[in-house]
Amino acid sequence: MQEELDDRKKRILHAVIRNYLETGEPVGSRTISKYTDLNLSSATIRNEMSDLEEMGYIIQPHTSAGRIPTDRAYRLYVDSMMEEKDREIEELKGMLLRTEDKMDKVLKNVANLLATNTNYATVVSAPQIRGNRLKFLQLSKVDESQILAVIVMEGNVIRNEIIHVDEPISDENMLKLNILINTHLNGLALEEINLGMITALKEQAGIHSSIVGNVIDALAMAIKGEEDLEVYTSGANNILKYPELADKQKASELIQTFEEKKALAKLATDKLAEEGNTGIQVYIGDEAPIDSMKDCSMVTATYELEEGMRGSIAIIGPKRMDYDKVVSSLKTMMKELERIYKKE
Amino acid sequence: MQEELDDRKKRILHAVIRNYLETGEPVGSRTISKYTDLNLSSATIRNEMSDLEEMGYIIQPHTSAGRIPTDRAYRLYVDSMMEEKDREIEELKGMLLRTEDKMDKVLKNVANLLATNTNYATVVSAPQIRGNRLKFLQLSKVDESQILAVIVMEGNVIRNEIIHVDEPISDENMLKLNILINTHLNGLALEEINLGMITALKEQAGIHSSIVGNVIDALAMAIKGEEDLEVYTSGANNILKYPELADKQKASELIQTFEEKKALAKLATDKLAEEGNTGIQVYIGDEAPIDSMKDCSMVTATYELEEGMRGSIAIIGPKRMDYDKVVSSLKTMMKELERIYKKE
DNA sequence: ATTAGCACTCAGTTTATTAGAGTGCTAACA
DNA sequence: TGTTAGCACTCTAATAAACTGAGTGCTAAT
Fold it and tell me: What average pLDDT does this structure show over B161-176?
């Protein structure tokens, strides 16, 4: 049952898959017999298809219907396809050219573009910066009771936090505090800041030691806040366009998964990191550990802006999605993103 | 045809509406006859209903079906309901208590809470700050070729922009630039910064005049960026739960409207501002100028944190939404938001 | 090994039938 | 005069029955 497919079987299977991708209907032997250049009668095809079914590549939804590909067939198809040359999708490139925008806008844009262009749903997650280092930290007085802490990390990720203080602080002390904190903490990653350092800092800060505590808290908050990553989605409505997903119950669940985003983004990001894989990953049906997605496929790509700053893009559609186009689109987007942000 | 409804007609109409809200099915005379405490036979009810139909408050989807309320009836119902006392929804309050979070998280939270609690879709837009003034502007050197501009506006709205510079700038000059810009621009609204001022500033900045230009641009960008407002949505999947909205074509359009957000937020924000209305607004069917929403109702509320800082919350559901509950929920949320952010 | 031919299967569509909810109208009633 | 009981009528929705056609599996011939 596990033996290799001979060439003819492969061609027939491919024909079945391609045809099903287009129509969404089960394909019969007669169709294949005409559709391919194999010049075989439908009867022959039937025999072959019968074999293929036994091997688990195709199934009949019911006796006397055509065959549809199983997840296994898709897997084979995708794998063989991945090796082929990249077909570029030029139009996308042009549309993204409004460079220099802020990252979040560009990412939103990416999500939208891909969704409208492919007619599937998309998820784009912003680069993660775990393990990132503090570049500098700037404290400014907002008013008598509030201090603004601007935190700049490597990769120019910027956060601000407002700190409340009980006693007013003089401009001079403010300056000292700034210098004190920066000389001690710059260049450190969050994990490297230990209790000893904090205590030492507080001692040196004298009367304003409580502020130091607040600043550290803010710092922790800011970096932590960064960790539960930002995610942009688009094209959820596309899901309803594919009858096999548009069942009310299921569609509702899927859209909900979509709104919650987190799980999706994690999936897209995690797997890729763990395999050191910088390329493209395809999950078909149950391969993704999300229940509501068992009738979908998901294609993910990772982009890397700097060492460690990785984000991901994912496209979700029916199992019979146009893998070819999706993969090309993703590749294009990845490259564009890296081109825009990699250096500068 | 426009004459007043007598009391009995009103009660019957109310009964029809309430019943339809619950069941989503057309309601017949017999049901009303039993459901109400009017002690009237179905025949009498029929006569009255016939009148109500003539007056345009109810219609039959087809001969020999019960009646369903028209938009006009809902309007009447909502108007009369609005005057009634507020029934509080306590549970919501508790859940929002995680104060002190950042605004965007709280707003997202509000959207989620309302969506899960009401089973409708929600839109929350962050406060707008048009016409807001600059509190101060802090420039810091990130590295040789980049400057970070932190812009703090009234209401502690904070933006940052990275500015690229060609020639390195000394710490001393940086300080001067900071002072120069702040002394000239603090307290001004964007509209008040004119070309003359910019020219004067540039002159005084000497060799770093180009940076001043960049800073002004960044300022403009930041404030402008703030204007195309942030919007959080949740519960889009709920739409599929109501058969009258779950038609694939329509649902898809609705969800798309939902993803685009902007139009919705504008609607929620604009109308309320224009009428100086601080309360709650209800759009039934065509009353909202968005095509995809003609089968929905939308209830909006505005919250005001400080003078001019207003945002809105909207709930979208089928026409037969539970207006009563929705209105209470919105009121609760408004109050909570104002409580959390109003002073501090 | 391939193919033509035929009997068989079964989802999906069409058509007919029925059941039930609801109405409008009339006539009786208080 | 307003209310009600009763009945004929209408129309949807549900159910059943009949039909269609795509597609298969198997057998026998090439």
Answer: 86
